Each structure stands twice: as structure tokens, then as C-alpha cells.
Amino acid sequence: MNVPFIDLNAQYRSIAAEIDAAIASTIADSAFIKSPSVTQFEEEFGAFLGAEHVIACGNGTDAIEIMLNAMGIGEGDEVLVPAVTWIATSEAAATNGAKPVFVDVDSETYTIDPKLIEEKITKATKAIIPVHLYGHPADMAEIMRIAKKHDLKVIEDCAQAHGAKIEGQTIGTIGDAATFSFFPTKNLGAYGDAGAMVTNDEKLAETAQAIANHGQTQRHHHTMDGRNSRMDGLQASILSVKLKYLEKWTDSRRRIAENYRENLAGLNGITLPSEPKNGRHVYHLFVIRTENRNELMDYLSEHGISSMVHYPKALPFQACYEYQNNSFSDYPVAKICQDNLLSIPLYPEISDEQVAYVVECISKFVDR
Ligand SMILES: *Cc1c(COP(=O)(O)O)cnc(C)c1O
User: Fold this and answer.
1) In ligand 1, which atom is closest to the CA atom of 61?
2) Ligand 1 atom index nearest CA of 131
3) pLDDT digits (tens, 9 = 90+) for 127-145
4) Which of 40, 194, 231, 289 could form a cystine bridge with 182, CB 3.0-4.6 A?
5) Residue 307 C-beta-side C-alpha neighbours within 13 Å
């Protein structure tokens, strides 16, 4: 049996007629840029989150960059980011001229460890960007408490956690602002690049909107140097169709995760992802931990199962941050993550037989 890591075509097949119609109508209307479908998606996504302002943009990296810029964070400032996340989180700080300062992650949730935040705060610190990594909500209550105490902005990086919740509140509505990516493999994915910024702060929303649109507050009136970061009409029309299915897909992800959880429980040397006590994990990825990670990955591959490593080199140890002289002993959990974490196949359309086969192969590997 073959088990791909993800199967985007299976998802397309399940809603092909609706997607094809949405694409055809966008093309028939030539509604490519600044199209009504973008405004419509912004409204629908805002309603889904319970957020006042959604500003669509080109991708999830732009969203973080523009939000930091709109908050006036740049040259000479420091931004706290988790040591384990996709590079976009720290890159967005750096491209604004700020310095990303890494905070190690919690060994159970793999999200930024609030216990380690305060020791990293200096006079230059302006913001914290928690990431709801792999779909697991970060500890927002603690993060907001610390941010308030030190007068720091909080931008939630929600690229991997569409629809995750804490105490019933949808993530992306807790910090000062939030950013989303709709990269095709994300829980809500477009058919190309797309992203969004979210905030309940009207002024911040206006500034972010202007930056994303050449610094224009009205047509041909540029109040600042902005940039061009737009979601196109085709992507918005596709996302509106897919948004209707997101809850159903999230339920499937959670059901599959539960299946893995039950059947992989107690396997020697395999640690399962933590399930939050007060929130909803949306399982963008199902990430297990084992000291024999590379051997397990090879074994699964020999048996037709694709798995992936997110991420093989944690950010503090990347060449672009060599100037920071970070060492493994400064980020012990990040080091464990890069060496021991393995993402196994989980997507809404995976079959029970495929999940059973993955479980069987991992069990055989452990017993070998
Ligand atoms: C995917 C991702 C991003 C960036 O999104 P793009 O749309 O690819 O630019 C940012 N942060 C995290 C944690 C991501 O996983």
C-alpha cells in the first residue's frame, strides 16, 4: 500500500464542481485583481474567526512583514519568536530591519515556552510572535499576560492553525493582530499563494491595508511607501468555497488524530503529540517523537509511506542567524525537535485502511 504525505487532488475531487464553477465565473467576470470575491472572502473569514478586520494579502510571510511594519516595528527593535517554526516567522522580523530573538519551545506542545520569554526581553523588545505550531494552540493566556506587563505587541502566526481554539475562542482573535497563510498544503489552502492579516484594531487595519496596497489610502493618494501584496480574485473565490468545508475537514483531522493516538499509544520509544486540555488542536501535522527518527523515516519509506521532518534544522542554528552565535545548549528543546520529530501522513481524505497501515508499520518498526 502507498500512503502519500498529503493528497491535494483527493480534496479537489471532493468539491471539483464547485471549485470549477468559482474559477469559471471569476474568469468570465475578469475579476482578477481587487475583485468582489476578495472582499467576500475577507468578510466570510472574519465571521468564521469572530474578528472585525480581515485584510487579504499575497501570502502568509507578507502578512507578518506588513503587520510588523504597520505596528512601526523595524530597525533597532527586537522581536521574540519561537526557536521552532517555519523561517517566515523570523524572516519577517529581519526583513523589516528588526532582530529576531529566539525563545526555546515547550517540550510537550512545541510552541513558544512562556517560562523562557521574560529572560529574553530587553529595552529593544517590541513584539512577540507566538506560532500555533502544527495546529496546537500556543499558551496565549501566559503570553498575553507577559506582553501586557512589558508593553509588547503580540502577533499570532496562525499559518498552521485555521480554526484552532483556546477556551472556545478561535485563535487569531487573542493577540493584537494575527496572520494566516493559505499556502496550498495549509488546513485552508488556496491553489497558489495567498495570505491574510487579522485585527480588531481599526487604525492598525487601515495602516496594514494601505501598506499592502502601495501606501494608498485613496486611489492615487500615497501617504507612505507601501508595497504590492494582494490576494487575487481566483484564490479568493477558491478559498470561499473551501472555507465552507473547513469545519468538516478539521473534524476529520481530529478523528484521524484520535485514531493514531489510540492505536500508537504505549509504543515503546514513541511520544505522541500533546492534546491541549483547554483548547482545540487542528492537526495541521501529526508529529511524533522518537530517538530513532531517521531509521523510522527510512523504514516507512521502504514500506511506501511518506513522512516528513518539520524542521530538520531549527531556526537558531540556521546559517542566516550565525551572527547570533546560538548554541545547542541555549535551545535544548529545539535541538531535540530537529533530531527527533517526525510528521506522519494526516489529511482529511486519508482512508482508515491507510491509517491502519501506517500504525502497523510503526508498530513493526518498534518491535523489530
Ligand atoms: C506557511 C507558514 C508561513 C508562511 O506562509 P506563506 O504563505 O508560505 O508565506 C508562516 N508561518 C508559518 C508557521 C508557516 O507554517
Assistant:
1) 9
2) 13
3) 999 999 999 999 999 999 9
4) 194
5) 28
- pLDDT for the residue 317: 98
Output the CA 15–ligand 1 centroid distance in Å: 25
pLDDT tens digits, residue range 276-285? 989 999 999 9
pLDDT band at 229 (very low <50, low <70, confident <90, very high): very high
Q: 88 CA to middle of ligand 1, Å?
A: 6
pLDDT given at position 218 = 87
In the reported structure, the alpha carbon of residue 358 is separated from the centroid of ligand 1 by a whole-number distance in angstroms of 27
Looking at every residue in the chain, the average pLDDT score rounds to 97
Closest ligand 1 atom to residue 62 Cα is 9
Tell me, what's the pLDDT at 120?
Answer: 98
Of 62, 85, 86, the one to substitute when testing ligand 1's pocket (max ligand atoms within 8 A of C-beta) is 86
- Report residue 162 as a C-alpha cell: 485555521
The best mutation among 57, 62, 89 to test binding of ligand 1, ranked by most ligand atoms within 8 Å of the C-beta, falls on: 89
The answer to whether the CB of 271 falls within 8 A of the CB of 261 is no
| pLDDT tens track for 318-341 | 999 999 999 999 999 999 999 999
**Helix locations, the chain, DSSP H:** 8-14, 16-28, 36-49, 60-70, 88-95, 140-150, 202-212, 233-243, 246-264, 293-302, 332-340, 352-367
- In tens, the pLDDT along 89-102 reads 999 999 999 999 99
Beta bridge partners of 195: 57, 181
Which residues have C-beta atoms less than 6 Å from ligand 1?
Answer: 59-61, 85-86, 88-89, 131, 157, 159-160, 181, 183, 193, 195
18 is written with which cell numbers?
464547485
Rounded to the nearest angstrom, the gap between the alpha carbon of residue 316 and the centroid of all alpha carbons in its chain is 19
Q: What is the pLDDT of residue 217?
A: 86
SS3 at position 287: strand
- Looking at ligand 1, which atom is closest to the CA of residue 195? 7
Q: Which of 50, 161, 150 is nearest to 111 (CA)?
A: 161
Atom of ligand 1 nearest to the CA of 64: 10
Atom 2 in ligand 1: which residue has the minimum CA distance? 159
179 CA to middle of ligand 1, Å? Answer: 9
